[in-house]
Amino acid sequence: MGIGEPNANLPAFDPKARGGGAGADFLTTRLETMVAWARRNSLWPLPFATACCGIEFMSVAAAHYDISRFGSEVIRFSPRQADLLIVAGTVNDKIAPILRRIYDEMPEPKWVISMGVCASSGGFYRAYHVTQGIDEIVPVDVYVPGCPPTPEQLMYGIIRLQEEIATGRKSRDHRSARAAAERPA
Ligand code: SF4
Questions:
Q1: 184 CA from centroid of ligand 1 (Å)
Q2: Measured in angstroms, how far is the CA atom of residue 162 from the centroid of ligand 1?
Q3: Which residue's CA is the closest to the ligand 1 atom numbered 8?
Q4: How much distance in Å is there from the Cα of 121 to the middle of ligand 1?
Q5: Which residue's alpha carbon is nearest to atom 6 within ligand 1?
Q6: Is residue 117 packed enough to be buried (19+ CB in 10 Å), middle (13-18) or exposed (0-12)?
Q7: Ligand 1 geometric centre to CA of 95 (Å)
Q8: Which residues line ligand 1 (CB under 6 A)?
Q9: Is residue 146 left, alpha or beta, with left meaning phi > 0 and alpha meaning psi from -120 to 50?
């Protein structure tokens, strides 16, 4: 399709039909769909960056990759103002309780991305003092593999999370609770 040609996938919009005609100056949908649409396009990330993966996160937030294209550029360092926790880096047993506290202080609904192998599995730190995966501490919605993951990988992870949110799903905590409620006694 060239510039100026009509896009058959979009609904027709006839400006002359505004104010009582049969044009597309209104739409019908469900409230849940609108809320999910707004949530998926306005994630406010809190970066819990402890190591080199945090640098890759900075790339994603900077101008070249620019996660504002996905509505996620409002970086917040207060858990009360964030709904997406991005854990980027090694988490050891000393800082793990702080990670949990930050997660607990975030309002619902909230989501978690585990960025890089260190956060996801302890990475090559097969050591007694390193948490062998943040899913021991908080529920994880999306794992982004790599050491470090590229900015494109993190963006892909955010897009996958947005697709999940668009379905109306809440965090993994909610899914687990729902699954438990639906499980026959
Ligand atoms: S996954 Fe690799 S890049 Fe990321 S924090 Fe661990 S060692 Fe650093």
A1: 42
A2: 24
A3: 52
A4: 11
A5: 118
A6: buried
A7: 16
A8: 51-53, 89-90, 116-118, 123, 147-148
A9: left
Angle (CA) 20-25-31 rounded to 5° is 115
Question: Length of the chain, please?
Answer: 185
Note the pLDDT tens digit of each residue in 85-122: 999 999 999 999 999 999 999 998 999 999 999 999 99
Give per-residue pLDDT as tens, 124-151.
999 999 999 999 999 999 999 999 999 9
Rounded to two decimals, the pTM is 0.81
Domains and CATH numbers, the chain: 43-167 (3.40.50.12280)
Q: Say if CB 45 and CB 76 are below 8 A apart.
A: yes
